[in-house]
Amino acid sequence: SSERKARSRAPAYLTFDDIGGQDRAKRELVEALDFLIKHEEISKFGIRPLKGILLTGPPGTGKTLMAKAAAHYTNSAFVSASGSEFVEMYVGVGASRVRDLFKEARSRAAKDGKDSAIIFIDEIDVIGGKREGGQQREYDQTLNQLLTEMDGIHTADTPRILMVAATNRKEMLDSALLRPGRFDRHIDVDLPDKKGRLHILQLHARNKPVAPEANLERVAGETFGFSGAQLESVMNEAAIYAMRDARTEVDQQHFSLAIDKVMMGEKTDREATM
Ligand code: ATP
């Protein structure tokens, strides 16, 4: 899955400077995290602690990167899972996996000597979808366990736990998940605009011999609607074309071919699922 790919590609830690574009989303997230760090003041004022941040937006826009950068920014241990990992044939298995995830977060923080931990759940909609009209589903228990664990988070606890979840189907989520004290802070992580696309391309060009005359701004202009993940692919494919051409640098022609390739790839993916 894309999460696994991101994991194997990412360095040991990731900062907000490694995320291209997304200026507003980054600012909103940092604001929320700064608030979280001031936990002593917060409890003095009797303010309800922030427990859950929901990142919403299309696939490949950097939600996982944001969660990782949040962990680095707050000096927290980081554990992650994808919603689909909790879907099991046997009743109760998903719920016990949720318990294990929280246990893992606490023990990881203790091991790393950190006083906070971030638990990231990608594709939260898989376990947190709407429970309609008393319909019993095998993973209701999983969602209930998640809610129970979240309700058990207290500001005074060590380690402090912050939940971050991601979805591209916010409207599908059960309202119980969105209630105050749960995932009540939402941050949109949208497709990047042209400036954002240029920034993302520049970040992924850092380790590549891009020809000085190649124009990344033009590449950004020609990739309207591309996600960060697709822009990363454009960079990678362009480098492959350059290498195949036995060139020492990646030039504009390689970028044009790469844009076409990524665009075509998307089309075939979509046709395949139709
Ligand atoms: P999904 O919902 O599909 O898991 P996501 O929003 O979590 O997607 P990420 O896993 O964070 O997306 O991004 C996938 C890869 O795409 C990253 O590892 C990175 O290489 C690239 N990428 C995506 N967005 C950005 C960005 N804003 N800046 C730099 N690289 C990005």
From TrEMBL:
<protein>
    <submittedName>
        <fullName>AAA family ATPase</fullName>
    </submittedName>
</protein>
<keyword id="KW-0378">Hydrolase</keyword>
<keyword id="KW-0479">Metal-binding</keyword>
<keyword id="KW-1133">Transmembrane helix</keyword>
<keyword id="KW-0482">Metalloprotease</keyword>
<keyword id="KW-0547">Nucleotide-binding</keyword>
<keyword id="KW-0812">Transmembrane</keyword>
<feature type="domain" description="AAA+ ATPase">
    <location>
        <begin position="49"/>
        <end position="193"/>
    </location>
</feature>
<comment type="similarity">
    <text>Belongs to the AAA ATPase family.</text>
</comment>
<keyword id="KW-0067">ATP-binding</keyword>
<comment type="similarity">
    <text>In the C-terminal section; belongs to the peptidase M41 family.</text>
</comment>
<keyword id="KW-0472">Membrane</keyword>
<keyword id="KW-0862">Zinc</keyword>
<keyword id="KW-0645">Protease</keyword>
